[in-house]
Amino acid sequence: MSRLDDKREARDGMKTLGGGRSPVIAALDLGASKIGCFIMKADGIRRSDRTVRVAGVGYVQSRGVKNGLIVNMEDAAQAIAQAVERAETMAGVPVHAVTVTTAGGQPVSHRVSIQVPLGQRPIADTDLTRAIAQALAQVRYPNRRPVHLLPIAWSVDGQRGVRDPRNMYGRTLGLDLLVVTMNESAFQTLGHCLDLAHLELTGVVAAPLASALASLEDDEMDLGCVCIDMGGGSTSAAVFAGGSLVHVDSLTVGGGHVTADIARGISTSLAGAERIKVLHGSAIASANEDRETIEAPPRGDDPGAGPIVVPRSIVKNIIAPRVEETFELVRERLKAADVMLDPGAGVVLTGGASQLAGVRELAVRVFDRPVRLGRPRRAPHLA
């Protein structure tokens, strides 16, 4: 019996046996290059050092997904089911619902500010709830689905920087709320795709936020930082300041575009270009790159065609402009959004495309800030 058949039976009522769902959390990373499923059990949480241990991991090559969007429903559902099945086998537990991490649907953020009057008593949870409710009443974004509602900052009588206003006194309570939205059609398509894989969609997490929470230090969030997630089909950014997420944006440019540039530039196949990018790709010059040569398979199936031989410098001259252009687009989008960062705020790079040699150095030049490569510090065993 296939996993999809198993899931169909579970949905039809078998999963209710034993009193409900298993105490597990499953996350699905829906990317343009790969689809991954991570399963965590309750005993995987270590509160002493604020880390988690994953019980099961499953990866498959992405199918039916382009630039973070589902373009073939059946292929994507099959790939998702395979990734989840592999994670289930490793963890030894079934999964019926997943939270999806994606940069698809062009996630962007919006800020909402509100002030509510207070009575002659300490601020209580009901006042916080009232402020959030009034802020949400202002949220009207046609064809966009809110996926995150995050308080940025509270203020009492205009005094900003309040982390927790409860039990304080004042006449007015102010709230700055960050609303992260994605395209409504993309959200509906994602839900239907998971339904075909017999999985329940419990929520969506914007990819840059997930990457930031996994890789940023607390000091970086407090002092200011930009986390740039360089995926296969998109590049997205999450900006932190004062310990809170203050901005999210995304571009439909990623590592897959670098691969396509190489394939076009030296007339090789996409598979050959990806191999060259991974094994020999670099965004900075090296001492012997003009004398070093790289072999690539030709396009087509002509058995008489020999390999394509090019200097390594040509590959660098293809990769560097695309990566630099991507960083410049991110920089200009942040400027256009009036994102204010302290001069010492750094940049953290995550995602597969960030692993290319020289990408960090190129980011330093474009952003003129300290740059480091991110690692999953909350799950160190996955680094």
Describe this structure in words.
The chain starts with a helix and ends in a 10-residue tail after the last strand. 33% of the residues lie in helices and 31% in strands. The strands form 6 sheets. The chain has a 5-stranded mixed beta sheet with strand order 5-2-1-8-13. A 5-stranded mixed beta sheet has the order 16-15-14-19-20, sandwiched between helices. The chain folds into 3 domains: 3-105 and 185-205, ATPase, nucleotide binding domain (Nucleotidyltransferase, domain 5); 108-182, Dna Ligase, domain 1 (2-Layer Sandwich), CATH 3.30.1490.110; 216-383, ATPase, nucleotide binding domain (Nucleotidyltransferase, domain 5), CATH 3.30.420. A hairpin with a 2-residue loop joins strand 15 (235-241) and strand 16. It has 383 residues and is α+β, with helices and mostly antiparallel strands.
* Average of the residue pLDDT scores: 87
What is the CATH superfamily of the largest domain? ATPase, nucleotide binding domain
Number of helices: 10
Q: Which regions have little confidence, pLDDT < 50, spanning 5+ residues?
A: 6-22
What order do the strands of the largest sheet run in, or round the barrel if closed? 5-2-1-8-13
- Biggest sheet architecture: 5 strands, mixed
Number of domains: 3
Which oligomeric form is depicted? single chain
- Beta strand %: 25-35%
Radius of gyration: 23 Å
Second-tier CATH architecture of the largest domain: 2-Layer Sandwich
